[in-house]
Amino acid sequence: MRTLRRSLTTAALAAALTAGTLAAAPAAPAAENPHERGPDPTESSIEAPRGPFSFAERSVSSLRVSGFGGGTIYYPTTTSEGTFGGIAISPGFTADQSSIAWLGPRLASQGFVVFTIDTNSRFDQPASRGEQLLAALDYLTEDSTVRDRVDSSRLGVAGHSMGGGGTLEAASDRSELQAAVPLAAWNLDKTWSEVRVPTFIIGGENDSVASVSAHSEPFYRSLPGSLDKAYMELDNAGHFFPNTPNTTMAKYTISWLKRFIDNDTRYERFLCPAPDDRQISEYRDTCPHS
After folding, report:
1. What pLDDT sits at residue 110?
2. Is the distance from CB of 242 to CB of 249 less than 8 angstroms?
3. What is the strand order of the sheet 280-285 is part of?
4. Which CATH architecture group holds 44-285?
5. Which of 251, 253, 236 has its CA nearest to residue 167?
6. Which of 103, 121, 142, 204 is 20 to 30 A distant from 160 in Cα terms?
7. Is 4 exposed, middle or buried (0-12, 13-18, 19+ CB in 10 A)?
8. Catalytic center residues
9. Is the pLDDT of residue 186 over 50?
10. CB neighbours of 274 closer than 8 A, spacing ≥ 6?
11. What is the DSSP string of 223-244?
């Protein structure tokens, strides 16, 4: 924030003192959110395939990391806006990072450092994927070549299918995370009352692999009622909706991550009140957000 400072010439100051008319300087305006990044958002800006930030990417070999299988980091190239929030994203069962690669540029161009990861094995279960997401965040903030661009206090996780189940596991294990976004999540554990991380669950109405009735909906109901949380069900969507560019999913995911990782209340209006969107068959929330 820039503060306008006004100065009086020596002569003017003396005159004001003599006349007894020197008034107190006006109070400075309230401090702006130091984590806001980018211009004011609009419907079109968060629906666009690319946001306002130029970005680059770096591959991370599995041979250079511990606890997960490597991946790709996407990051804003500007250094003029300070550090950015970081997000690790896990693919689903039998998949690799290529299945979620579109999310890297989409989110990085909106002002995040994004790490799409490979898992140690394509068959890793949700609990393991949760541990790997956290290991990826630790690498991103402590050892990666872009660690100086990441604010280690503003981190989130996301994932598809068993990676979505792993997202819940990571949120359960590390309460200091700022946001979690499980996508078509699958997990045998249906109770998450211990989670303290703002969580946005997105399911597909016609998911036959992780049906919303058996997975996403019970996950949402089990989260604490006092938690900032939301549930979005995409109209007519199947299990693999996160594997190709999806404007509705991206729009509200961006809004959630901005709202809670960046504490950017400019995005609150896209989440509260509940969106009126033809692509959404159901939406639940705990608005207004704290």
Report:
1. 98
2. yes
3. 55-60, 71-76, 112-117, 84-90, 150-160, 179-183, 199-204, 229-234, 280-285
4. 3-Layer(aba) Sandwich (3.40)
5. 253
6. 142
7. exposed
8. 161, 207, 239
9. yes
10. 283, 284, 285, 287
11. S-TTS-EEEEEETT--TTGGGS
pLDDT digits (tens, 9 = 90+) for 206-238: 999 999 999 999 999 999 999 999 999 999 999
What would the pLDDT profile of 65-117 be if each residue is shown by its tens digit?
999 999 999 999 998 889 999 999 999 999 999 999 999 999 999 999 999 99
Single-letter code of the amino acid located at 40: D
Nearest to 252 by CA among 66, 47, 56, 106: 47
Q: What is the residue whose two structure tokens read 């990826």?
A: 136
Residues in the chain: 290
The answer to whether 64 and 108 have CB atoms below 8 angstroms apart is no
Q: Which helix (H) or strand (E) holds 181?
A: strand 179-183
Token output for 46: 């968060």
CA pair distance 259, 37, nearest whole angstrom = 11
At 67, give phi and psi (nearest 5°): 100, -10
Residue found under tokens 């995409």: 234
pTM tops 0.85, yes or no? yes
DSSP, collapsed to helix, strand or coil, labels residue 150 as: strand
CA geometry: angle at 172 spanning 166 and 175, to 5°? 125
Q: What is the largest CA-CA distance in the chain?
A: 83
Six-digit token pair at 85?
Answer: 């929030």
**Do residues 170 and 180 touch, judged by C-beta distance below 8 A?**
yes
The tokens 């949700």 sit on which residue? 126
| Angle at which helices 126-142 and 162-173 cross, to 10° | 60
DSSP type of residue 98: G
Main-chain phi, psi angles of 206, to 5 degrees: -110, 30
The pair of structure tokens assigned to 126 is 């949700």
Mean pLDDT of 177-190: 98
